[in-house]
Amino acid sequence: MSLNEELRACRESAPDHIPPAIREVMSRAARDLAESGQVERALGVGVQAPRFSLPSATGQTVNLNDLLAQGHVVLSFYRGAWCPFCNLELRALQQHHHELTARGAQLVAVSPQIPDESLSLSEKHQLAFDVLSDAGSDLAKQYGLAFDLPEDLAAAYDSLGFDLQRVNGGHARTLPIPATYVIDREGEIRWAFVTSDYTARAEPADILAALDDLR
Length: 215
Description:
By secondary structure, the protein is α/β, with parallel strands linked by helices. It has one domain: Glutaredoxin (3-Layer(aba) Sandwich), CATH 3.40.30.10. The chain has eleven helices and nine strands. Strands 5-4-3-8-9 form a five-stranded mixed beta sheet, with helices on both faces. A two-stranded antiparallel sheet has the order 1-2. The radius of gyration is 16 Å and the shape is globular. The two termini are 27 Å apart.
């Protein structure tokens, strides 16, 4: 089963445990975000990737320049460990981690959640790659990915027990739209997947194909 087939199954099961009123809030916010034009404004192929220096789940500082010195970089932005679609994505990336590294790529995932939350996620899924904390979504803003949740959606998430105020270190309403970038050794974005639909993610097979094109 492909990643997006798993994501589709997860999406189809959501009505079983989310109240109709909250589903309507989520659907309206998703439509508004899709119509905002943010995906079209986000960074894409052919531009230099913004440099970053971010803390990992284990407290180390991970620097893009250091990663590029080792090879190409696959950079994935996800919303957080509270998001079931993100968990499916990270698990799929872990399953393909060996294939990514065999192509000379360094994989890192970035979310706005605090390092302690990233550590719990990393241990739960036994991730062999770094998950980084982008406090306040500063890096996501440089990529054009960060957006603020509307008040009714933020309240809906609170009612579901996600507690974004805590897990995002006081930046409860700012999240990244999901995105995955392949960055070559010179720091240029060579492939990008950006979507306003948080239930869709880049297929690992497509990421691998993009890396193959760099050979």
